[in-house]
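Deviation from plan, reported transparently: flavin mononucleotide complex.
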Amino acid sequence: MGDVVLAISGASGAIYGVRLAHILGNRARLVITESGKLTLAHECDGLTPERLAEESGALLENNENVGAKSASGSAAIDAVVICPCSGSTLGKLAAGIGDNLATRSAIVAMKERRKLIIVPREAPYATVHLENMAKLSSWGTIVIPASPGFYNHPKTMDDLIDFVVSRVLDHLGINNELTKRWTGEEIQ
Ligand SMILES: Cc1cc2nc3c(=O)[nH]c(=O)nc-3n(C[C@H](O)[C@H](O)[C@H](O)COP(=O)(O)O)c2cc1C
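Because the crystal trials were delayed, the predicted structure below was used instead.
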C-alpha cells in the first residue's frame, strides 16, 4: 500500500488531523499550512509540526515545497486527506489552485483520480463554501464534515474526535474500531 498525504490546514479542529497522523503513523506524509501551524499550536497545547511528526512517526513535508513526492503524479501515493480543511483551501481546490504542497497534492490527486478526502469546518458555511463543496463532491472528492454524531452516546472529547476520524479511515479503506458500529438494533 502507498502513502497517504495528510494535510492540516488552518481551520479549527487540528486535533482531528493529529489523531489521524497518530493512526496512520509512517504511512502519513504530513503537510501543515502556515495557518495550520497556528491552529495546531493554539488548539493543541503548543504542538509543533516537528513534534507531531516525531510522536506519530509521520514524515514531515515542507508546505512550500510543491516539488515534494506528495505532489508527484508518478509516486506511490494512495490518497490525500485534508483534515481539517479551511474554507480558503477548499476554495483553492474548487478553482484548481495548487499554490502550496497541501493544495498541489490535492489537485494532483484529482488529476490522477486518487482518493481525495476533505474534512471542512466552518460555522455557518458561506454559500461559496457550500457551492465549492458541491463542486468537489461532484468531481469525486469525499466531503466528510467535522460534525460528530451523537447516536453512539459519546462521553469524552476523544469519542467525538474518533467519530470523525473513523469516517475518514473508513473511506481510506483502513479497518478500525474507533467507534461502535450501528447495528440497527439500537432503536426498537
Ligand atoms: C484560531 C483560528 C481558527 C480558525 N478557524 C477556521 C475555521 O474553522 N474554518 C476556516 O475555514 N478558517 C478558519 N480560520 C481561518 C484560516 O486559518 C484562514 O482562512 C487561512 O487563510 C487558511 O489558510 P490555509 O487554508 O492555507 O490553512 C481560523 C484561523 C484561526 C487563527
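Residues 9-12, 33, 35-36, 38-39, 42, 86-89, 121-122 surround flavin mononucleotide (CB under 6 Å). We consider this an acceptable substitute for the interim report.
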